[in-house]
Amino acid sequence: MRWTQAAARLAALTVVAGLIFAASMLTTFGGTRSMASRISESTIAGIVDLRAGILPATTTVTDSGGEAIAYLYDQYRYPVAASQISPVMKAAIVAIEDRRFYSHGGVDARGALRALVINSGGRARQGGSTLTQQYVKNYDLYVTAQTDEQRQAAVAPSYTRKIREAELAVTLDRELSKDEILARYLNIVYLGHSAYGVEAAARLYFDTTAAELTLPQAALLAGLVQSPAEYDPIRRPAAAVGRRNLVIDQMRQQGAITGPQAAAASAAPLGVQDDGEVPAGGCFAAGDAGYFCTYVVAFLEQAGITAEQLTRGGYTVRTTLDSDALAQVKAAVDDQVDPATPKVANVMTVVAPGTDAHPVLAMAANRTYGNQPGQTSYGMPYRADNMGAGSVYKIFTAAAALEQGVAGIDSILDVPESGYISPIYRDDNGRPIQVTNITDYPARLSLADALARSPNTAFVKLLESTGVPAVVDMAQRLGVTSLATTPADGKPGSPSLADVARSRQQASFTLGVSPTSSLELANVAATLASQGTWCPPSPIESVTDRTGAPVALPQPACRQVLDPGIADTLMYGLGNDDRGGGTSADAAASQGWTRPVAGKTGTTQDHKSAAFVGATPQLAGASIVFDDSPSPQPICDGSPPYSCPEGTLYGGTVPARTWYRAMGEILAGEPAAPLPDPDPRYLTGRIP
């Protein structure tokens, strides 16, 4: 037996040597390098990658329950081990493609000599390739080649390619078992309808696995290798049956199966699924989870896993997405702003508080995610690209005042009349700024009532005591991290929004003129609900590689950014927005809201955007409504909202109604949790 194998390998090597000699005779006279030397160099380079045998594989992105929401791939493939491939599948491919597979040494001497004689006219016209050689060719085509030119070279009918394949095949046959070579071949081969490899094809055609393939199923797949289009079982079933039965007959002739087994398999129906399409790849196929999927990809890229690695690496990405919560958020944003409404976008994000993580549970927009007309792939829920969140930023001024001891939550603030001119702050031209209110207010309000009723003049006056830099720092600490990374003039390398606000003493900062995202604002609320513990908002529960090994993702650690007593006191102080004179009281009533909530509305000047931020002890979230057109205009509240000369959009209208509807449905059935009690240390400050 050993002598027979050695003789076969010797014959194979002899054929290779003959082919190399013949090829060298074909080189033009005076050539600077022989074909043989070029082949040797490419063989040395190629064997390194072939030894590893790592193939492009599909990455699966799932929700928190493990249900797939997206597939990321260049080639839809699921590589499996030899032990995970049905024995009849191995037998079928050997029978039809390489009957001497187990006896040759990587190159079939008889087949190669026959091909050499037939092709001696110069240009190769017939192949004598073994499965091992085909594996080498397919590896060049589907793994190594990155350009059209390289892909054409990988299948070009030339002696150069054939000889290189032969050399590599012989080397692989020495180093790998036959079973490993067979598995690698079956994992790489194309089997039609965008399915690469036997596992993907088994799922596509039969909704099964490579390990569970039956004899007729295996024979069908083996027959597809020669021409997936010609023997397409979905579009050309008669041709597919004929080809399948030929494979079955070859298996019978070679003793792989018995006559009765062959007869039964040949009589079996094709049994393929009707749709015959692999799952669409990318986030465009994720439906309502498309925005979340895009956010996941961006998050992973920032963590060091590139888009190319995701589409070729075969990862399993288990996210924090709560699909039920997503459905409620999507229903809420669409209910308030129909997806077809021109120039009005409605986005919302939900984050869970915690002291060791802030998982992102859902994000959605009324705009349908996609690349078709009327759809968008712009990452609206997590990108800071709107006109701002308005008076939501007064949270940061209040927090800075508590931290500095300037005021407590019960402190009584002066509320200057509309038209107040600050004695401290100036605009960029050095002129005094005039601050207006949207309505009349009492001359004095407690800080808690001021948060609920939101007079602009009271907070600009409070800012005169805290200073702008402290408020900007507070916003960053609590979660508006884009302030430090977004150039104020939009040009990379320019001073950031935070830098400009500090250096120019921009009193308008407390009025929320800086662009932000619903993700950042939701995380601000989560930080307060976590007793001042900031964690980076994360959409990832776990990532494992194709072997199932966990992949570590570097990210900032959670940290205490605010005294727990201040955070609790702020939660308490923000608890009046949904009742009494609070700016979201009408919205809360319209949605049947009855739970304690710490909330804050905001509206930008000219009503081009508005926001609502809220937190319960269980969940935090933010909704932003804004004009998403290139030339933003004021927005009027309506069914649906619309562009108008003088806006009537406020944070307490569309954004608050969106938030209360979504959160009410998500929390339905959960017990209502109370807001924390205020810390006595922060009830009063220097302002009595």
From TrEMBL:
Catalytic activity, reaction form: Preferential cleavage: (Ac)2-L-Lys-D-Ala-|-D-Ala. Also transpeptidation of peptidyl-alanyl moieties that are N-acyl substituents of D-alanine; [GlcNAc-(1->4)-Mur2Ac(oyl-L-Ala-gamma-D-Glu-L-Lys-D-Ala-D-Ala)](n)-di-trans,octa-cis-undecaprenyl diphosphate + beta-D-GlcNAc-(1->4)-Mur2Ac(oyl-L-Ala-gamma-D-Glu-L-Lys-D-Ala-D-Ala)-di-trans,octa-cis-undecaprenyl diphosphate = [GlcNAc-(1->4)-Mur2Ac(oyl-L-Ala-gamma-D-Glu-L-Lys-D-Ala-D-Ala)](n+1)-di-trans,octa-cis-undecaprenyl diphosphate + di-trans,octa-cis-undecaprenyl diphosphate + H(+)
Keyword check for Glycosyltransferase: yes
Family: In the C-terminal section; belongs to the transpeptidase family.
Ranges of residues in domain Glycosyl transferase family: 69-251
UniProt protein name: Penicillin-binding protein
InterPro entries: Beta-lactam/transpept-like, Glyco_trans_51, Glycosyltr_51/Transpeptidase, Lysozyme-like_dom_sf, PBP_transglycosylase, PCN-bd_Tpept
GO CC annotation, single: outer membrane-bounded periplasmic space
Keywords for the protein's UniProt record, in alphabetical order: Carboxypeptidase, Cell shape, Cell wall biogenesis/degradation, Glycosyltransferase, Hydrolase, Multifunctional enzyme, Peptidoglycan synthesis, Protease, Transferase
Boundaries of every Penicillin-binding protein transpeptidase domain copy: 358-618
Keyword Hydrolase: yes
Gene Ontology biological-process entries: cell wall organization; peptidoglycan biosynthetic process; proteolysis; regulation of cell shape
GO molecular function annotation: penicillin binding; peptidoglycan glycosyltransferase activity; serine-type D-Ala-D-Ala carboxypeptidase activity
Organism encoding this protein: Pseudonocardia bannensis
